[in-house]
Amino acid sequence: MPPRLNLFTAHKAAAALRQPASFASRNGASPLRFRSEQSASIQTRWNSSKGGKKVIPPEEQKFPTQDPLPHVSEEAAEVDRIMSKEKSCDGQPTAPELEQGTPVSEILSRDKEGMKHMPKVMQDQLKKGTRSFSTSARSRLPEIQNSQAEGDASAAMLASMIQGVEEQAAERIPGLKFAEPEAPRGTLNFRKRYDTMQDQFTKMLMQDGKLARAQKNMSIILDTLRTSSPPNIQSRRPLLGAPPAPQLPLDPVLYLTLIVDSVAPVFRIRQQKGIAGGGTAVQVPHPLTLRQRRRTAIKWIIDGSEKRRDAQLAQRVANELIAIAEGRSGVWDRRDGQHKIGISGRANLGLAPRRR
Amino acid sequence: MARPTSNGLVQAMQSLRLSSQFPQRSLIPSSRHLSRAYATEAETETNTAIQPESIPDLPVQAAPEIDFSTSFLRNPARIVPASPSYFSGSPRFVDHVLHLESLQARYAALPQLPAGEAPRMAWFKLKQFREYVGEAVPVKKYKSLVKILQRLNRIQPEMVPGEVRTVLDSFLRPGNPYAVVRETPELDENGKARAKGKRKESKAVVHLVEGEGEVLVNGKSIVEAFPRVHDRESALWALRTTERMDKYNAWVTVRGGGVTGQTEAVTLAIARALMVHEPGLKPLLRRAGVITVDARRVERKKPGHVKARKMPAWVKR
Amino acid sequence: MASAWCWSCLSRLRPTTRAVLPPPSAIPRLTSAPFHSSAVQYAPPLKKKSNSMTQLKYRQGQTLRRKKKKTVERARPPAPGERKALRKRIILSNPNALEVEGMQEISAENIVDARLRGSVLGLPVPMLDQLRAVQAFKPKQGWSIFRRPGAVVRRDTVEMGRLFEKISGEGDAAEKGKVVKKVVTGTKGSGKTVHLLQAMSMGFLKKWVVVTIPEARELVSGDTAYVPVEGSKPTQYIQPGATSALLMRTVEANREVLSGLKVSQKHDIAGVKPTSTLEDLAKLGFQDPALAWPVFKALWTELTASAAAPGMEKDFQTRPPMLVAVDGLAHWMHNSAYRDTDYKLIHAHDLVFVKHFLSLLRNGQAEMKNGGMLLYATSTSNSPGVYALEVALDQMTARQAGIKPTSPEYPSAEAYSNADPRVLDLFKPIEGKEPQMELQTLGGLTRDETRGYLEYFARSGLLREPVNENWVGEKWSMSGGGIIGELEKLGRHVRSAAIPTPAAN
């Protein structure tokens, strides 16, 4: 029988073991890292097979008792070098961070005056809400991409140069008769051609599996949103992260998304039995994913539209959507009620039995 | 013979057995050979050699003197299996694995091809392999064996040792399915590409030529054939994503099925025809999902069900 | 109360016992039985049949199906007529759409400007009322998504503009008094109705008299009253209600022109004074539908008069040219829904109203002395499918392609196809007599026109995609070669690029 230990892979492991020691020796200047690397190398497996054992040359050998910090005199010399010798042109001592490549944003975060004058892109990035997490349903990625895409003349020139190079590359690509197609805007796959939100809403409008009819209804809804007057938004019930109201009808899909996301509940209420004892159910809030939240909201909207008097389904739903945007709809109350129950049921979260 | 007492009968039987000893003895080892088609016992050879000498003599005879000088030293005291994996559940399979592993270890230093470039080999399917070794090999274990085979197969072709080559060939299924290279479709003399597509019950045939973006479906304008914008968009998606809409003319014949089926059959056919013109577009078309065959068909109706899945309603009486 | 007997068991045993046994309802009340004296009620109660699950039949479901309570409280349905009003509603403006900068209005000067091809010309606001009066707008056209109504200038439009100029007696090659007769056809969504609308707007700009029949079907669908004409052979029928509506439309739209023209002929209609204007004349037909047809005839003779009757020349003004626009011509080519006294269907050509307008179309017929244009459009969204008309239009196409009616290639109705001879007769060629009927087939826009049209969408803020050569080519193909109705669908088709543009927050 061959040995359990594969010798052909053992040398890789040995290389991995070897690495930290030599790496640590090269980075003697940073004591903290040095210490951690040192401890890692000490933890090497002593019980590994003899064949894999590596003889460490004496000059690379490090021992736990060895002082991780450089000598006091060396440190003093280093401080002196930073403070006195390596001064910048205006006589200020250079910060070590400049040499070691600290991100500009980190420096600016300490410099209040500098923050005012920093580029807009960075200001946008720094602008964050009070929460460390985002409840926004929409991705911020395209925004950043858009802002990057807008360049000045030099950037355009650079882009044209890049394009020229790419065109040359395209000529060399075999099997193409015409210019290589650009990367498409948005999605490429024809099964995902519509906005996810729009698609989900359409599918939920569908009755008896008639997708074409649902799509027709969806287009009527979007047209209604497009042609109806801009919503009169209540300050008590604003749409989450919406542009000014007059701009909304021009982008009906965004309008629809904002409406649905604004009334979407953050959690559902689970009736949990067997926590409190006595067979009574306890209401426990349970978080929902984005898709689930939207689904709940759409369901509520369609339910709410049932009570309207318009003849057409699409018209009913569209009117309900506008009512939500203006804060008049009962869907808001439903959402608020659910949130109220959830907040009062927060205490029950810990009671939930751990699932195996 | 004596009169037929019970004693006499027993005696007669004994004598019969004794006299017919020779043919019986000769039968036993051969049947044992049949049951084990491979040599697991080292002693068989010596046994058969000794027997013919001992049998013609008297029925009762002392065993010959053990010759310690020759055979006993050569043969161990206990019978030892030929294969070290004799006591594993599936010795032949384990033998193969061990052999392959030793080969792999021996030739590990030989240069290899990148994973995708190794010649494609049709290894035994699991069922065939089980028949080949005559053991119930588990799926997972066979997979690990195939992994070793593939590793050996990646050795650069000009450096493959003959030993490895013969071993690898012994694991190939009869007939090489990858030997038949499918003919890549080409443009005909008029610069026209022809391709087919299917979806649901529909079948589409597309003739694609370079042109100005005219599309005719069953001799009609595409607007008449597919009144919905969604359908038209689907049908021309391949040309649309590759920005070739105004560079080709398509003549489409589509039969059978409903609107969605016809539309997506056309999608597939146009994408394939476009690949004949420009094979370089394949990655893009793959990402666009237009050359992915949707093999779903209507699920059959089952007995006891109302439709494919629907069960009849429960009635109390 | 349920019977204690199992009737089926008993009946199986002795089929005849049923008649012998007492009726089930009588059993509990029986105080004594015929064969023993103890009362029935003292007998131990019959053991109730155990409610065991009887053997399920083959293919029986196992799930319990309860009837769900329907709790959906729907609001009352809309009031009668509301749905129709919604369906017929025409909205001409979307205040949310952006104002397109530098958008020109259609005017008497720029209708012949070929440089404007591909651009969208707005309709002037005062003209909208006139166009609404003649019902030029149809509900399913996409007027409601733009800031203001407008129409694309395409090749056919410019050609039509030239004709208008010519007939009005302006421009280089003026042919005042010429009559142009056109049958407008084309595939679905190719802009036939909007072509008529553009013609009407040009008519209004050139101060023509515009007479329209926006729905040819309404005259033959049997919805309005009809009266036989006394002594006509074969019997012909007048539709007073429809005529009255036509007079109203005409007066409403052409008030300015008609009020400036005085009566110049003698009419035996009560209430017509020599000083009354044509508007006053037409208004006589409003009040009394019985008078509507004679009033319309009188108005027609006034409008087509080239000179005044003797004795009335005092304030005779030359009559303006006329535009007659009919939409949905095919409905006039078969039997109407009206019945005669024998309960037979009346042919549309026997309706006087229809006959009048069709006779204008006839080859060589030159009743319109002051010139003008006849535009009779077919419809594809609402068409009865008349074989004879198809043949007639094919023949017209062949004639325009230079095929003589005597040649073997000239299309003719198939044998035994029962093509309506009256229809074929209407479209039959008459050599040598002007004016001749023409066939105008509307196709798709060219790529440049397509681009202009789609740019209009983008500039209105409805389209959020960069309009470039490639994109336009794609839409052009997708719309079956620039079919404008399809382009409109594509333009308003919302397909944002999967991720909505994020908002600044």
Task: Please describe the structure with a list of short key phrases separated by commas or semicolons.
A: Ribosomal Protein S7, two-stranded antiparallel sheet, 15 helices, 4% strand, B: 317 residues, alpha+beta, 5-stranded mixed sheet, 13 helices, 42% helix, disordered N terminus
Task: Please explain how this structure is put together.
The complex is a heterotrimer of chains A (356), B (317) and C (505). Chain A is mainly α. In chain A, strands 1-2 form a two-stranded antiparallel ribbon. In chain A, helix 1 packs antiparallel against helix 2 and helix 13 packs across helix 15. Chain A is extended and about 80 Å long. Chain B has 317 residues and is of the alpha+beta class. Helices cover 42% and strands 9% of the residues of chain B. In chain B, helix 5 packs parallel to helix 7 and helix 10 runs parallel beside helix 12. The N terminus of chain B is likely disordered. Chain C has 2 domains: 345 residues, no CATH class; 46 residues, no CATH class. In chain C, helix 4 runs antiparallel to helix 8, helix 8 packs antiparallel against helix 10 and helix 8 crosses helix 11. Chain C is globular, with a radius of gyration of 36 Å. Chains in contact: A-B, A-C, B-C. Chains A and C meet through helix 8, helix 10, helix 11 and helix 12 of A and helix 3 of C.
